[in-house]
């Protein structure tokens, strides 16, 4: 297995229930809902992505020929100390590359593994914290996990229907777009109308972290 990593660096987790936690952020290249090229955005299944996941030229990125090699890279970025080791794996779509071998290699180095996925592919076994962010018009097969993060607003998604899925936490995050003020207002209204949901903001952008 060769792992294509867009970027990998030490930071603070900026979203969700673990926001503010020290973490190594591992972004895999590639996605199954959009090529990442602007010319393909209008025909993509996910049209609002704000992430560059194309190639392996980001900070700490590259191609890794083994799970051992990639897990060693993650450990080197964490630095000294075994307490609280957390790696946040995302993309693109991480389930295209995350396999049992990498999960085991990261666990062997003492890391707790958090993953952020669009849910269209079944989750790799052994993940410690699973966040699913559904996209309108896609077939979500992974309907259980730790947190469901709904980027809002999206047409053709019913928050009431999502509440029947098996998650411990239901988060709504304003869409980062030209009409962000309206997105924030819409997210607040959703929480006020359906109190099972909790507002989640991208704290890393507020404080200027990548």
UniProtKB/TrEMBL annotation:
Pathway this chain belongs to: Purine metabolism; 7-cyano-7-deazaguanine biosynthesis
Binding sites annotated in the UniProt record for Mg(2+): 51
Record-listed S-adenosyl-L-methionine binding positions: 48-50, 92, 133-135, 173-176
Single annotated GO MF: lyase activity
TM annotation in the entry: none
Superkingdom, taxonomy of origin: Bacteria
Binding site for [4Fe-4S] cluster: 31, 46, 49
Lyase found in the keyword field: yes
Reaction catalysis annotation: 6-carboxy-5,6,7,8-tetrahydropterin + H(+) = 7-carboxy-7-carbaguanine + NH4(+)
Residues the entry annotates as binding substrate: 12-14, 27, 90, 210
Role played: Catalyzes the complex heterocyclic radical-mediated conversion of 6-carboxy-5,6,7,8-tetrahydropterin (CPH4) to 7-carboxy-7-deazaguanine (CDG), a step common to the biosynthetic pathways of all 7-deazapurine-containing compounds.
HAMAP family: QueE
Subunit structure: Homodimer.
Protein name in the entry: 7-carboxy-7-deazaguanine synthase
């Amino acid at each position: 297995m060769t792992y294509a990593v867009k970027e990998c660096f030490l930071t603070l987790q900026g979203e969700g229930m673990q926001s503010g936690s020290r973490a190594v952020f591992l972004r895999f290249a590639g996605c199954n809902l959009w090529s990442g090229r602007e010319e393909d955005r209008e025909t993509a299944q996910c049209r609002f992505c704000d992430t560059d996941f194309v190639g392996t030229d980001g900070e700490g990125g590259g191609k890794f020929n083994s799970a051992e090699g990639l897990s060693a890279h993650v450990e080197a970025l964490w630095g000294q100390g075994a307490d609280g080791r957390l790696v946040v794996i995302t993309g693109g779509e991480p389930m295209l590359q995350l396999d049992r071998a990498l999960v085991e290699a990261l666990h062997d180095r003492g890391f707790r593994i958090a993953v952020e996925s669009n849910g269209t592919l079944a989750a790799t076994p052994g993940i410690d914290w699973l966040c699913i962010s559904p996209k309108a018009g896609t077939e979500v097969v992974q309907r259980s996990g730790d947190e469901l993060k709904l980027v809002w607003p999206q047409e053709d998604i019913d928050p009431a229907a999502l509440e029947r899925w098996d998650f411990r936490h239901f988060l709504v995050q304003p869409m980062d777009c030209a009409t962000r003020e309206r997105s924030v207002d819409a997210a607040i209204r959703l929480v006020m109308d359906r109190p099972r949901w909790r507002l989640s903001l991208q704290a890393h952008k507020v404080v200027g972290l990548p």
